[in-house]
Structures are given as structure tokens and as C-alpha cells.
Amino acid sequence: MDDAMFKRRLAWKAFQHVAAYNSAVFEWFWKQTKSGEFVSSFNVFLERSSSLRYGQNPHQKAAFYLDKSLSDVKLGGIATALQHHEKEISGNNVLDADAAWNCASKLSTPTCVLVKHTNPCGIASRDNLVDAYRLALEIVLGWSTSSVVLLLYL
């Protein structure tokens, strides 16, 4: 990287930092007014939380971004979920996990959702996650394989 490119990159990072700070100050002042009015514009700052294996297709690059203000699991959805598999997920896996989350997050009992191409193909709620997983798997075994398994215990 030449010197000019290095300076441009540093300038970009500095302005990115200042923009995030200005947005936070704007939001703080707006909340102090308690006017209930809609703001004319707002900025959303997302932080890259991980690189994805690929996007919708294997030749596409992809990344997963997180809104750090949504630290609560119920607000952050899959963005704040814990992944137990070490392999990087793909963009399609993110869509499947989001579909599973949308199915299970409304339930109050331990739930397992099996999803393929954003379609739930097995869902079960039981007193514990092991039984929920076994029942959801029984539903699916006859006709499909699942790409995403979401286990939810609130």
C-alpha cells in the first residue's frame, strides 16, 4: 500500500469514528427532548461481527453486521446467538437461522426448530431441549434434511 492510500485509509477510519460519535450525541440529545416526534433522518451504525463463508452463492463474499445497541437476545435475534459449530456460516445459514428464530422466539418452552431454505420443516417444544430436538428430528426424518438447527431455551 502506497503512502497516499495509507493516508486515505487513516482518514476514512477517523471520519468513521467521528460519524459514530456524532450520531451517538445526536441520539442522546433527541432522547432528552422526549418530544415523541419522528426525526427527519437518523444513522444506524453496524459493526462487522464476523465474516461469512459465502453469501447466497459460493462465489460471493459476505459479512455479518451487528447493531451493538441490541445487546438483549430478544432484540438482537440471531445476531446475539451463540454458535456451537466451529465452521463459518454462510449467508444462507443466516437466513435459515433468522427464520428459525422467528418461529421459536415467540414460545416460552424449550423449543427446537429445523429449517431448510428458510422453511421450517420440523418444530417441537418440550420440557427440555433434548426431547424437543428428538421430536423435531422425528418429524423431519421421513422426507428432508435440515441445514440449520435452532435450540431455544429462555
Molecular structure report:
The chain has 154 residues and is an alpha+beta fold. Helix content is 40%, strand content 19%. It is built from 4 helices and 5 strands; from the N terminus they run H-E-E-H-H-E-E-H-E. The protein has helices spanning 3-33, 73-76, 91-104, 129-141; strands at residues 47-52, 62-66, 111-116, 119-125, 148-152. The strands form 2 sheets. It has a 3-stranded antiparallel β-sheet, sandwiched between helices. A two-stranded antiparallel sheet has the order 1-2. The longest helix has 31 residues, at 3-33. It starts with a helix and ends with a strand. The mean pLDDT is 83.
Short précis:
It comes from Ceratopteris richardii. The protein is an alpha+beta fold.
Number of extended strands: 5
User: At the first level of CATH, what is the class of the domain at 46-152?
Assistant: Alpha Beta
Helicity range of the residues?
40-55%
| H and E string | HEEHHEEHE
Considering the protein shown, what is the CATH homologous superfamily of the domain at 46-152?
AICAR transformylase, duplication domain
Our estimate of the beta-strand percent is 15-25%
How is the secondary structure organized here?
Blueprint: H1 3-33, E1 47-52, E2 62-66, H2 73-76, H3 91-104, E3 111-116, E4 119-125, H4 129-141, E5 148-152
